[in-house]
Amino acid sequence: MNIFITRALPGDVLAPLAEVGAVTVSPHDRPLTPAELRAGVAGADAVITTLNDRVDQEVLVAAGPRLRVVANTATGYDNLDVAAITAHGAVATNTPGVLVDATADLTMALLLDVTRRVSEGDRLIRSGEPWSWDIGFLLGAGLQERRLGIVGMGAIGQAVAVRAAAFGMDVVHHSRRGTGVGLAELLSTSDVVSLHCPLTKETRHLIDEAALRLMKPGAYLVNTARGPVVDEAALAQALRTSEIAGAALDVYEDEPRVHPDLLELDNVVLTPHLGSATTETRTRMAAVAVQNVVAVLTAGEPTTPISFPENS
Ligand code: GLV
């Protein structure tokens, strides 16, 4: 069996793979180009991908008929054409569950940072500008009794709700399953809106100019889901004109590019897709991907399959 891994994995998690096949790990310390990905997967029985790898029909043709599993080292899988993988006779898997707490923690870190101007204060001190304690200096917004609107009430959304409630926030949510409040109500009544939905055809640019206009002037937007859920140009415009108070983003429309206007604004906190970035969590994610490959190649059944049709 041939197993291709598109980017080095942490820890000793590769050991079980050596029992079932020959393992090739990309030698590059960067995402593969589409051509490198196609060359790497040729003749593979299993591929372990990251969210940077777009697995489409072309990649499947390049892989050939032996391919049985595409194991994504992420919970989101908008980078995989699950329909095409299924039609190819392979299964697609992800790593749900193991990154829930890490992502919810980072969401709270961003929420606190943008509302209490932590990064802004850090930048100010590093700039060498003189400062002194003052009754009105660098004031932010308190969270107690403020409303948090969670868009997407899966495991991560629920974990954020628990944390936010502990901070004294009043939590509402909107879910594609129809629970919670309508999106317009959530946007127009929340002091912080936090995105936790997957990227799908329906959620691409869910937060566009019109949605931003519905938000309260003092509201904040937090995105730890997927960049294209937000129209970044419209967001930059809404922040520039103080239509909303601030934003904290971990994900971007065209990663790793960030809309240049956002870089100029002080009321935006930017982190480089760190939602699951703890040593423990990344190791567990890699282990789940490895487990899926071993399970499919030895028993034909993955541990955490992505079902197709999705959401069925
Ligand atoms: C990270 O963004 C993931 O989906 O796991």
Question: What can you see in these coordinates?
Answer:
The protein has 312 residues and is α/β, with parallel strands linked by helices. It has helices spanning 15-18, 34-41, 57-63, 82-87, 100-116, 118-127, 155-166, 183-189, 209-214, 232-240, 260-263, 279-299; strands spanning 2-5, 22-25, 46-49, 69-72, 91-93, 147-151, 170-174, 192-195, 220-223, 246-249, 268-270. The strands form 2 sheets. The protein has a 6-stranded parallel sheet with strand order 7-6-8-9-10-11, with helices on both faces. A 5-stranded parallel sheet has the order 2-1-3-4-5. Helix 2 runs parallel beside helix 3. The chain starts with a strand and ends in a 13-residue tail after the last helix. The mean pLDDT is 96.
Structural class: alpha/beta
Number of E strands: 11
Q: Uncertain runs with pLDDT below 50, 5 residues or more?
A: none
What Rg do the Cα atoms give?
Answer: 21 Å
Which key phrases capture this entry?
single chain, about 300 residues, alpha/beta, six-stranded parallel sheet, five-stranded parallel sheet, 12 helices, 11 strands, about 35% helix, about 15% strand, binds glyoxylic acid
